[in-house]
Write a structure and sequence with these properties.
There is one protein chain. By secondary structure, this protein is an alpha/beta fold. The protein has helices at 13-24, 26-33, 65-70, 87-96, 106-123, 140-146, 161-173, 177-186, 195-198, 201-215, 234-242, 309-329, 366-376, 404-416; strands spanning 4-9, 37-43, 61-62, 76-79, 100-103, 127-128, 152-158, 225-226, 245-257, 263-275, 287-294, 298-305, 351-360, 381-387, 394-399, 402-403, 420-429. The chain folds into 3 domains: 4-136 and 309-329, NAD(P)-binding Rossmann-like Domain (Rossmann fold, 3-Layer(aba) Sandwich), CATH 3.40.50; 140-305, Dihydrodipicolinate Reductase, domain 2, CATH 3.30.360; 350-429, Alpha-Beta Plaits (2-Layer Sandwich), CATH 3.30.70.260. 36% of the residues lie in helices and 26% in strands. Strands 7, 8, 9, 10, 11, 12, 13, 14, 15, 16 and 17 form an 11-stranded mixed β-sheet that branches. A 6-stranded parallel β-sheet has the order 3-2-1-4-5-6, with helices on both faces. Strand 4 (76-79), helix 4 (87-96) and strand 5 form a beta-alpha-beta unit. The longest helix has 21 residues, at 309-329. It is elongated. The protein binds NADPH dihydro-nicotinamide-adenine-dinucleotide phosphate and L-homoserine (HSE). Residues 10-15, 43-46, 49, 65, 80-82, 86, 104-106, 131, 135, 307-308, 312 line the site of NADPH dihydro-nicotinamide-adenine-dinucleotide phosphate (NDP). L-homoserine binds next to helix 7. Catalyzes the conversion of L-aspartate-beta-semialdehyde (L-Asa) to L-homoserine (L-Hse), the third step in the biosynthesis of threonine and methionine from aspartate. This is Homoserine dehydrogenase.
Length: 433
């Protein structure tokens, strides 16, 4: 049997671990596939860069990614470069030519997955991307295959390791955001520019990919409501603790009726209070977990390492094995099926709950005035607690579920009241807290 030949695009954190695992596990991979895997070439930006003791011949490195993809002997293209271009042009070229593609590129899939899926259909080629969401955790294949007989209603996840590390550390030590971010940087979790993580862009890209698969509807990063976690304070975390909750940066994708009663999909990323009894509250450090709810299956939880070279390479290798097997048997993996075409619900229509802390003047009638604002916007209050007295009086209000637009309008009006000295914090509440 001739070997299955791979073009590896990128040899950084993930790519170098793909190379190492391909080498170390070669005999097992050959036995599982029924043919050897062979690297035809490795495209990088700086071929002369020192890459430790990678078990490959230097002559395999090239800067000509497109030339490598177009080689007749290449069967599978593995892309671990990242970013939208030139990755999109490379992968479209490969797929249209009938070459299987394995990619970890969440940014590209979330911005323009449609172009890749169309090219795969055109070339009757495989497109695998398990590593693009939650690193090592087998999640996309269960959504794409195992749950295809069921109806997924909600996907709630912690899909960014850096921010989960920061929030876990704030919860455990009482540290503020800046201190926790600094520690995350020292430990190598946070990148030099942590914007994509802390502002929720990374989680929003992953949310779009999950929602597309779960609801058979094309969802892009632009459809995802996104709020980062830089405003979460040590005070918010302490308040959450007093309520028996913690704070996590969640991605939430759900189907349900919009304001006009049409079945629709809402996708959002924001920090939220969740009860400590919720399975996602136990997810600590840089781990990821995704909680899937489906009509027949009920609740399912997927947990593991969502980032890092070796865990991510594990998911890439799994896809390479599947693509290679299909090449040998002349079959194709199930492609994207966006038949449902559900409309996207705006954040204003999504029903959420708020936890609001107000710094208020302490005098008779304050509570009635505050309660009146909630009533005017048809928001029902679940609990009210006052902490402190006189100059230090704080009202902490937790609402029942209401359209997010009503909750936001309530907060805007509260901000205008003379008796409200400041709005200390506003956080959404999830999971029955
Ligand atoms: P790195 O930055 O470590 O590596 C990127 C690689 O791409 C490098 O080898 C670089 O070459 C190469 N490269 C960059 N631009 C070009 C170009 N124009 N032509 C050819 N090669 C190029 O990235 P990661 O390994 O961390 O990430 C790769 C992908 O995996 C991304 O899509 C990322 O989102 C995804 N991912 C990463 C995870 C992680 O934990 N790191 C987790 C899950 C997904 P050179 O080495 O010469 O600079
Ligand atoms: N920056 C990402 C994280 C890497 O912290 O989870 C994995 O996509």
């Amino acid at each position: 049997m001739r070997p299955v030949k791979l073009a590896l695009l990128g040899c950084g954190t993930v790519g170098s671990e793909v190379v190492r695992l391909l080498h170390e596990q070669a005999p097992d991979l050959t036995a599982r596939i029924g043919a050897e895997l062979e690297l035809a070439g490795i495209a990088v930006r700086r071929p002369g860069r020192k890459r430790g003791s990678l078990p490959v011949d230097e002559s395999l490195f090239t800067t000509d990614a497109l030339g490598l993809i177009k080689r007749d002997d290449v069967d599978v293209v593995v892309e671990v470069v990242g970013g939208v271009e030139p990755a999109r042009s490379w992968l479209v070229e490969a797929l249209r030519a009938g070459k299987s593609v394995v990619t970890a590129n969440k940014a590209l899939l979330a911005e323009d997955g449609a172009t890749l899926h169309e090219a795969a259909a055109e070339g009757a080629a495989d497109l695998y991307y398990e590593a693009s969401v939650a690193g090592a955790i087998p999640l996309l294949r269960p959504l794409r295959e195992s749950l295809h007989g069921d109806r997924v209603t909600r996907v709630t996840g912690i899909v960014n390791g850096t921010t989960n590390y920061i929030l876990s550390s704030m919860d455990a030590s009482g540290a503020g955001f800046d201190e926790a971010l600094e520690k995350a940087g020292e430990l190598g979790y946070a990148e030099a520019d942590p914007t994509a993580d802390v502002e929720g862009f990374d989680a929003a890209a992953k949310a779009a990919i999950l929602a597309s698969l779960a609801f058979h509807t094309r969802v892009t990063a632009a459809d995802v409501f996104r709020e980062g976690m830089t405003a979460v304070t040590a005070g918010d975390m302490a308040s959450a603790r007093r309520m028996g909750c913690t704070i996590k940066l969640l991605c939430i994708a759900e189907r349900g009726p919009d304001a006009r009663g049409r079945e629709s999909v809402g996708v959002r990323v924001h920090p939220a209070m969740i009860p400590r009894t919720h399975p996602l509250a136990a997810v600590q450090d840089a781990f990821n977990a995704v909680f899937v709810e489906a009509e027949a299956a009920g609740q399912l939880m997927f947990y593991g390492q969502g980032a890092g070279g070796t865990p991510t390479a594990s998911a890439v290798l799994g896809d390479i094995v599947a693509a290679a097997r299909n090449k040998l048997t002349g079959t194709r993996a199930p492609g994207e099926n966006a038949y449902a075409h559900l409309p996207i619900r705006s954040i204003g229509e999504v029903v959420t709950r708020y936890h609001i802390s107000l710094d208020v003047a302490e005098r008779p009638g304050v509570l009635a005035a505050v309660a009146g604002v909630f009533a005017r916007h048809e928001v029902s209050i679940a609990t009210v607690r006052q902490s402190g007295r006189a100059q230090d009086a704080q009202l902490i209000i937790v609402t029942h579920g209401a359209p997010d637009a009503n909750l936001a309008a309530t907060v805007a009006e509260l901000d205008q009241l003379d008796i409200v000295r400041s709005i200390v914090s506003v956080l959404r509440v999830e999971g029955g807290a």
